[in-house]
Amino acid sequence: MRRSCAHAGVGCLIALLCGCSLVPGTADHAPPPSTPAADPSLGQMSSYLDMMERLSRATPAEQAEIAQRVKEAAEVTPTTSNRLRYALALATPGHGKTDESAARELLTQLLATPETMLPAERALAWVCLKDVEQRLILQAENQRLQASEIQQERERNAAINRRLQTEIDDNARLRKELAEAQAKLDEITRIERAIIQRNPGSGGP
Asked: What is the pTM of this model?
């Protein structure tokens, strides 16, 4: 089948959200049976979901083309529908133009005027907004952990370097002390030889 099971499940959820007008009233005031009218928002929702699915499944070149086309439509004709479509494209993970921060900003702007959207559009925008907010929180936490790990590694390296420098300084000090001691010993030996040379008989028979 062309659409995945996940796509079908999301479509069913949207249909349930949008189909509140089909719920009957009370038993005392139930209208006569009639054929329910098709909800015009369902076709629009299917269009949004199709675009998001193609973005997540297409090749990188196709993804870039879809994202660019949606962006240009939102810039040239900034209707609520085009802006929402662009926000959904930015929010869709798995392609090179994914931008959670930009998606959050645009979705927040759209939801600030909910009367300009259909109920199903508002529901989809709200769900996507919460999703990108959660992903941004996870990204921030991941960055914090990485920064903490880098800082700990730097501190470990600094401690190792300090110990190494201390050992180098200690070795240099010991070599200097050894050289000074050897110089004193050489001087004593020289003085003894000089004394012996001046007093040949003093060294014994």
From this structure: 0.56
Helix 119-198 vs helix 5-18: crossing angle, to nearest 10: 130
Domain, as residue range, for 71? 43-141
Cα dihedral sign, 74-7-42-116: negative
Domain count, the chain: 2
**Percentage of the chain with pLDDT > 70?**
77
C-beta pairs of 143-150 under 8 Å, 24+ apart in sequence: none
pLDDT (tens digit per residue) in 61-86: 999 999 999 999 999 999 999 999 99
Which alpha helices (DSSP H) does 19-118 contain, by range? 40-57, 60-76, 80-91, 100-111
Q: Side chain identity at 171, as an amino acid letter? A: N
Measured over the CA atoms of residue 148, residue 153, residue 157 and residue 160, the dihedral's sign is positive
| Residue 173 resides in a domain | yes
Q: For residues 76 and 45, give the distance between their C-alpha atoms in angstroms, rounded to a whole number.
A: 22
Pairwise CA distance, residues 66 & 45, whole Å: 17
Residue 25 has a pLDDT of 42
Chain segment 140-191, per-residue pLDDT in tens: 898 888 887 888 888 888 888 888 888 888 888 888 888 888 888 888 988 8
In a domain, 26, yes or no: no
Whole-angstrom Cα distance, residue 87 to residue 93?
12
- Does 28 reside within a domain? no
Tell me, yes or no, whether 67 and 133 share the same domain. yes
